[in-house]
Description:
With 153 residues, the protein is of the alpha+beta class. It has two domains: 3-41, no CATH class; 50-152, Aminopeptidase (3-Layer(aba) Sandwich), CATH 3.40.630.30. The chain is 27% helix and 35% strand. The protein has helices spanning 23-41, 92-106, 122-128; strands at residues 3-5, 15-17, 50-57, 63-72, 75-83, 111-117, 132-137, 146-152. Strand 4 (63-72) and strand 5 (75-83) form a beta hairpin. The longest helix has 19 residues, at 23-41. It is extended. It starts with a strand and ends with a strand. The mean pLDDT is 91.
Amino acid sequence: MNQIFTMSKKDTIHIELTDKSSKKIKEFEKIKWAVADQEHYGKPVDFTKNKYKFVAKNEDGEITGILDLMTEANLAFVEGLLIGSKFRKQGIGSKLMKQAEDFAKKNKCTKVYLETNEDWEAVEFYKKLGYEVTGKHEDHALGQRSLIFTKFL
């Protein structure tokens, strides 16, 4: 998926949309982000995005729930929490969240954040776990309003 965007005839900059990172692109990012980190944070920061999947299973080995976590620098983002409908209200979601929080803390994360739709039952669930609403997105995915929740570890 490479696409070139042309500007005016006298423009000397050409923009390319690509889904691949060449050696040249990776080297540019490595050098330039190190300079930007030094300017903004006074030190180099590892912004590598690491993704993890926590999987809950019952004694029969059946998957009951999954939590997707992404860490970057000192932040942990819960990308998704999914509990099978017949396994809800059994504490599985709370246990997955606790494991993810403990893991994040061990990996030097200072806060966990996530997003959920404003009118979903998950709102009360996250509040019960100590998460606070710290922002919202209007007209977000499929026109829904979503809430951003944060918990400091």
